[in-house]
Amino acid sequence: MEWFTAPELWMGRTVFQRGLAVLYCVAFLSAALQFRALIGERGMLPVPAFLRRTTPLRSPSLFHWRYSDRLFATVAWSGAGLAAAMAAGAGDAVPLAVAMPLWLVLWGLYLSIVNVGQTWYSFGWESLLLETGFLAVFLGNDDVAPPLLVLLLLRWLLFRVEFGAGLIKIRGDACWRRLTCLYHHHETQPMPGPLSWFFHRLPRPLHRVEAAANHVVQLGVPFLLFTPQPVASVAAGLMIATQLWLVLSGNFAWLNWLTIVLAASALDLSAFTGDHPRPDPPLWYVALVLALTAMVLVRSYRPVRNLLSRDQAMNRSYDPFHLVNTYGAFGTVGRVRDEIVVEGTSGEAPGRVRPDARQADAYKERCTAGEPVLRRADREVSPDAVWREYGFKGKPGDPHRWPRQYAPWHLRLDWLLWFVALSPSYGAPWFDGFVLRLLLNDENLLRLVRHNPFPDGPPAYVRCRLYRYRFTTWRELRESHDCWHRTYLRDMVPPVALRAPLDRT
């Protein structure tokens, strides 16, 4: 079946599959190590409460059968272990009829997590990982040559990722059309990396070149993915180079790395590795690939309509299985950077509550139910109170601390705090629960922060202040060694304490 296979892309498939498995592993580990404070039974947005508001049809997940933190941890760690095995080549060591269910299990486990993750899992790269992972089920293993139709579906996905991002920019912020967005983007992006300061300080003509090159790669090059080799490989190589540039300049979880992995599937590396002929694929496999192709083509109607629409949406899933989605990024670019600085102070508060573990759980339950658990206490705090700042792993805080490289790791709390700084409405469902857990010195939440200034006991009061951040200039960097300069704007959350008394537990 020469029409069905593309043996020259054997190595591209291998790179894609191993890379995807590594990213699956990162995603599962991220879920395993962060879920308790975010969506666990005592988390800020507990899964059990969410499951009572939804149905298996609206959010398919094995957790509709039963939920416990132990089961969630088992799912996440099992997914990480299976993904690690696939990255090591387990998918090629078993028959095709076994390899496909293994990839399907990875997809199903992660779908179960995403569909109960609520706002913590609302990022476009979650849908991208699921859509990519579903296509990977049908890509085969060493028993068969790479199926051309599935490889073309991967290119169609890559096309939507890149072209959608390019269109949303051209249609969105005027600075993309003026080639000036990168005067600001490296400074105001959600989570800068260790080189972002230097990217921001590049000469402005180079920023214009960056923006123009981005338009070429996202709006022109994607069409070349569907041309014969070696042009398709050149197009994929340009996309990989652009994504590596983005990796160096910021932290976007696994978005850039997953795009690189997708582009690798289009690379013809046979000149270096030779062809790898395989027997004709079994008919049942051919039938499954044809069915998949028909399904994707039919379900592509709404993403294509979105691409052609003047009201293009950036990231959207059109079904609860995240099978064929629409993508985009940075339709608008911020000109200034505001950050939430979270502080606490110790001391004795009038009527201060010192809850035990049982009472702490009761506070969390009341907060989940929407009952008031915090009280405003700014008049109680002495003007001489010493406020100590919480340090976060990825988001800017201490002006002297240089940004770190975390991608492809996803720091979900840090990302959502960036959104809350843009608009408090992003934190409406969970922000009180976040502050409550700081007042309780909740160990699950404190695992998500870099520095807890109250290791010996919870603070009496917590406040959240809004600061305007900017990168320092070359002169300021030499004199102060600070990466950031910040200016106080206002209190976003005035000093608050635990509400007392706790009448029922």
Overview of this structure, please?
The chain has about 500 residues and is α+β, with helices and mostly antiparallel strands. The protein is built from 21 helices and seven strands. A five-stranded antiparallel beta sheet has the order 2-7-6-1-3, covered by helices on one side. Strands 4-5 form a two-stranded antiparallel sheet. Helix 12 packs antiparallel against helix 13. The model has no long low-confidence stretch (mean pLDDT about 95).
Q: How would you briefly describe this protein structure?
A:
With 505 residues, the protein is α+β, with helices and mostly antiparallel strands.
Short descriptors:
505 residues; alpha+beta; 5-stranded antiparallel β-sheet; two-stranded antiparallel sheet; 21 helices; 7 strands; 48% helix
Number of helices, where a helix is a run of at least 4 consecutive DSSP H or I residues:
21
Beta-strand segment tally? 7
**Sheet with the most strands: spatial strand order:** 2-7-6-1-3
- Name the poorly predicted regions: none
Q: How can the largest sheet be summarized? A: 5 strands, antiparallel
Residue share in β-strands: 5-15%
The portion of residues assigned to helices is 40-55%
Shape: globular
What order do the helices and strands come in, and which of them pair?
Layout: H1 10-38, H2 47-51, H3 69-87, H4 90-93, H5 96-114, H6 124-136, H7 148-171, H8 174-177, H9 185-188, H10 196-200, H11 204-220, H12 231-249, H13 255-264, H14 270-273, H15 283-299, H16 301-308, E1 337-345, H17 357-368, E2 374-376, E3 388-389, E4 391-392, H18 412-422, H19 431-439, H20 443-446, E5 449-451, E6 461-471, H21 474-480, E7 484-498
Antiparallel strand pairs: 1-3, 1-6, 2-7, 4-5, 6-7
Helix pairs in contact: 1-3, 1-6, 1-13, 3-5, 5-6, 6-7, 7-11, 12-13, 17-19
